[in-house]
Amino acid sequence: LANLLENAIRHTAKGKVTLKAESGMLSVADTGMGILPEHQRRVFERFYRVPGSPEGGNGLGLAFVQWVAGAHGGHAFVESVPGEGSVFQIMLPG
Fold first, then answer.
1. What span, in angstroms and rounded, lies between the C-alpha atoms of 61 and 76?
2. What's the pLDDT tens digit per position in 14-45?
């Protein structure tokens, strides 16, 4: 969760970051630059960094998020619209 919040803050220079927790689901939404579709499917790969993203990070944070979610029987995924922001969610079995 900390990694998702740090990423959202880093990618949202001026805007809003929202954290939501519901039964079996955690989400972090931002109003940042968003992620192009061709990069969305790769953001959970180890060492992958979206070209042109702000400095910082080594491309391991989201891979770790996916690994931890999987270790608990869940899954992490992203929904993003370029220019509007992103929503990262962690779904866990109920």
1. 12
2. 899 999 999 999 999 999 999 999 999 999 99
Residue type, 37: P
3-class DSSP assignment, residue 40: helix
CA distances from 69 to 4, 6, 32, 33, 72 (A): 12, 17, 24, 25, 5
Query: Looking up tokens 């491309």, which residue turns up?
Result: 59
Strands 85-91 and 25-30: antiparallel
Q: Which of 26, 45, 20, 32 lies closest to 85, judged by CA?
A: 32
Using DSSP, how many helices (H) and how many strands (E) does the chain show? 3, 4
Q: Is the pTM here over 0.85, yes or no? A: yes
CA 10 to chain centre: 11
Q: At 63, is the secondary structure helix, strand, or coil?
A: helix
